[in-house]
Amino acid sequence: MSHTFQVDLRGLVDLLSHHLYSSPKVYLRELLQNGVDAITARRALDPGAPAAVRLLPGDGGLRVEDTGIGLTEAEVHDLLATIGRSSKRDGLESARADFLGQFGIGLLACFVVAEEIRVVSRSARDPQAPPVEWRARGDGSYTVRTLPEEARTEPGTTVHLAARPGAGEWLEAGRVAELARHFGSLLRYDVRVGGERITERPVWDRPHTGPDARRAAFAEHCAETFGFAPLDAIELDVPLAGVRGVAYVLPEAVSPAQRGAHRVHLKGMLLTEHADGLLPEWAFFVRCVLDTDGLHPTASREGLYEDETLAAVREALGERIRGWLSELAAGSPELLGRFLSVHHLGVKSLARHDPEMLRAMLPWLPFETTDGRVSLEEFARRHPVVHYTRTTEEFHQVAAIAAAQGIGVVNGGYTYDAELVELLPGARPGTAVAELDTDTVTAHLDPVDGGEELALAPFLAAARTALDRLDCDVALRAYQPAAVPALYLDDRDARHERSRAAAEAASDELWAGVLGSLRESRPRARLVLNHLNPLVRRMARVDDARLAGTAVEALYGQALLMSRRPLRPADSALLNRTFLELLDWAVAPAPQTPPTDRPSGDAR
Ligand SMILES: Nc1ncnc2c1ncn2[C@@H]1O[C@H](COP(=O)(O)OP(=O)(O)OP(=O)(O)O)[C@@H](O)[C@H]1O
Question: Cβ distance 35 to 66 under 8 Å?
Fold first, then answer.
């Protein structure tokens, strides 16, 4: 024997209100939607039929009247009283696409706020059919009866809601007007709360006296909708999915991980304020408001259904925003400059995957370089080879020295920057790009005269002994700026080892010898003492081998600090020890005083 499922309406309403809908306020959206769909259905039969929805709050309840298609008694039983039944799924796909509803559960949302729903309706399809009344209660019971002719003379439907205990606030006049405006301001029919019209033309459809007035109208709309003054407004129009709208460019940077909170209307009805997946991920610098005929809602009607249409719209909107950027690059450098100063990270992430974009944006993208913050194009014009470092530490380690030797360096340590610089030759033919290694820097430093270096041999030997256990070699060169006493170059990995060999081949005999000596051993860090630095020169004349050793260790520590590398525990200990030792030397009594008078507790 077969049975029919029984539905516990109270349980179903609880399920909807707690798990499908985000708030009781959606009841109003469902009512508006039913009114609008009913008018659409009637107008398909009679294009000249009136099109109005009236919301009339009062007496602890709400009345919603529409001039739509109405229902006969049989339809009331079939459609209103059968959960999951919808008239909007019948017929052709194209006709279905005209409606907002489709699931046949919308009316249930009213039970979240109402104890009783009373519907009085008269069919436009069957003018002979009398008005009909349907009364339904939250416990699942309902009654249907026909009414006398004069109970409703015109086609259409009126829905009466009587508030549930505790839910009265949702039906109050102020709240109803606020919700109607929130959900329905862009609906295409005349919707009023009391006598007040709440529907308006979308800002992008309004006529304006000129471009300036249009811009001002968009700025005002953005301030009202999102609460910020946009850098610019990008008009959106994708006929394929009936999308019209506007993307507002944020005046402040946002994290690329932060997804956009876009407002999407479906045939005028607000679907969501947090649409996800509407734009490509890189377009995180805009917030959109748009209305669409062609995108599909999820059953909760609070999000977009991820399908091919959404994918196509996403691509088309991305294309439009990309076009806006190209237009700026071509014609509005001042605005582009302002835009990039805020959103360069976003544009850089976009340009990485998009050579066309890279070419368009290249003259404008700012990078940190040894010439200051300049665009890559400007930098490439000034320097025959665009050198870059892969990390910010490397940049800080060599920037000042490299700049003084005339080597231009881009800091590739920031997000995407190294990758972008590597793409430069593709976007700007003829540009030479090379990763900066420590040997390129050393190869640019002048060697010290052979005789002078020989004279300093004892000092250099003491220095090498002092730093040997730190896996660091010592070299002497003459370089600018003279104020820098020593340069710490980390030569640890194989990449450096390869370029070392090249530098060795190109350098003079003495330096080639130093470099060559490194070849056999594992690559080591190197402290390059600056022979132009007065302190280094004075140190080289110190007779006391121990003091000379401590001084070199201190220089090593200082150069390490300048390179902004993280200090190993051994390095911190060395800094601490050398500081105290030098302090001790500095405050030591004059040489004629006997050593026993020295302060006690010294670290030596
Ligand atoms: N104001 C109205 N005028 C005429 N018919 C209506 C009205 N309200 C509801 N109906 C009929 O009742 C059916 C069920 O309505 P309900 O709101 O539950 O679902 P729906 O609008 O079809 O779909 P959804 O669950 O997606 O909103 C509708 O398909 C429609 O035929």
Answer: yes
